[in-house]
Amino acid sequence: MLMELDYLVFIGRFEPFHNGHAAVARHALTRAGKVIFLVGSADTPRTTRNPWTVAERTVMIQAALGDEQARRLIICPLRDHLYNESLWIAGVQRTVAEAIRKDGGDPAGARIGLIGMDKDASSYYLKEFPQWPLVDVRHTEALSATELRRYLFEAGDNDRHGALLLLRGNVPEPVFDMLEAFRRNAPAYKELAVEYQFIQQYKEAWKQAPYPPTFVTTDAVVVHSGHLLLVRRRAAPGKGLWALPGGFVGQEETILDAAIRELREETRLKLPTPVLKGSLKGRNVFDHPDRSQRGRTITHAFHFDFPAGELPDVRGGDDADKARWILVSEALDMGPRLYEDHLHIIEFFLGRG
């Protein structure tokens, strides 16, 4: 059968890959010779919003569509760029071109399209690639991935509320088998279930507020002699992940003073305040709506830079069980081990983002 397109690009996080995704993929395979899946959030830690690695989501996709159709799939990881849309668009374009070249095709001459469902504001990205004709699929009756993750973490050991039945009815059977194995056997599931309960309790505590709360936090990006100062989180959310020193702003302090206070509390860094303020090289606000699972959280980050000298002593304290100077080059490769959007904040100040 002669296909109207050589490749259709399907962008998503697929957390998890559900019946709606499968319907879109099957339709794509009727319109194009091959489908290029771009699996988003590829360089992030496991969270209740992104519980599965790219490798695990790849297996979900292939298993759901079967061996015959899987031969016509090209599955590639796609990094997020929360604060630089141009870099994200360039990443999509570059990844698609590389995938086509590896497939033996010519990106310049290939007939490429984009497939997706223009359902709400979250689908804005479908308009970012005018060079690719859009195959706009109709809505398919399926629970959203957000709802399915909620059912997964609320199922518990006894599943008194029938969450697993809802999961089974909304994902392909091989995907359900993977989710059930993940729930029963994976240590990561148990950790995420604890974090899920913490986040739900945190949100419940703010439920009586007259308006949804917006939290203000601050983070310190301290660079000294080619090293970045990071702390390892002691408690949920993000227990065990590495993070920039920081925290919530107090009622009686400026945001910069809050950054220095949190820096001292979490790292025991003994540099005098005038020295820190004199080394301030930059500041920026990071406000992506999804940057924190606890709710709408806007952080003000401050970049302190010391080009040379002996590294000052640091040790964990307060909310951090460890503080460490890490080579900048290594820190930039720590995406899956960094908390929330801290990789993006680091990249913003250190030049890669």
Based on the model shown, name its key terms.
353 residues, Rossmann fold, Nucleoside Triphosphate Pyrophosphohydrolase, five-stranded parallel β-sheet, hydrolase, nicotinamide-nucleotide adenylyltransferase activity, ADP-ribose pyrophosphatase
- Give the CATH topology of the largest domain: Rossmann fold
Task: Output the structural class.
Answer: alpha/beta
Total number of β-strand segments? 12
How much is the average pLDDT?
A: 93
Architecture overview:
This is ADP-ribose pyrophosphatase. InterPro entries: Cyt_trans-like, NUDIX_hydrolase-like_dom_sf, NUDIX_hydrolase_CS, NUDIX_hydrolase_dom, Rossmann-like_a/b/a_fold. Its EC number is 2.7.7.1, 3.6.1.-. It comes from Achromobacter aloeverae. Keywords: Hydrolase, Nucleotidyltransferase, Transferase. The protein starts with a strand and ends with a helix. Strands 6, 7, 8, 9, 10, 11 and 12 form a seven-stranded mixed β-sheet that branches. A five-stranded parallel β-sheet has the order 3-2-1-4-5, with helices on both faces. The chain is globular and about 65 Å long. The protein has two domains: 184 residues, Rossmann fold (3-Layer(aba) Sandwich), CATH 3.40.50.620; 137 residues, Nucleoside Triphosphate Pyrophosphohydrolase (Alpha-Beta Complex). It contains eleven helices and twelve strands. Strand 6 and strand 7 form a beta hairpin. The mean pLDDT is 93. The protein is an alpha/beta fold. Helix 6 packs across helix 7.
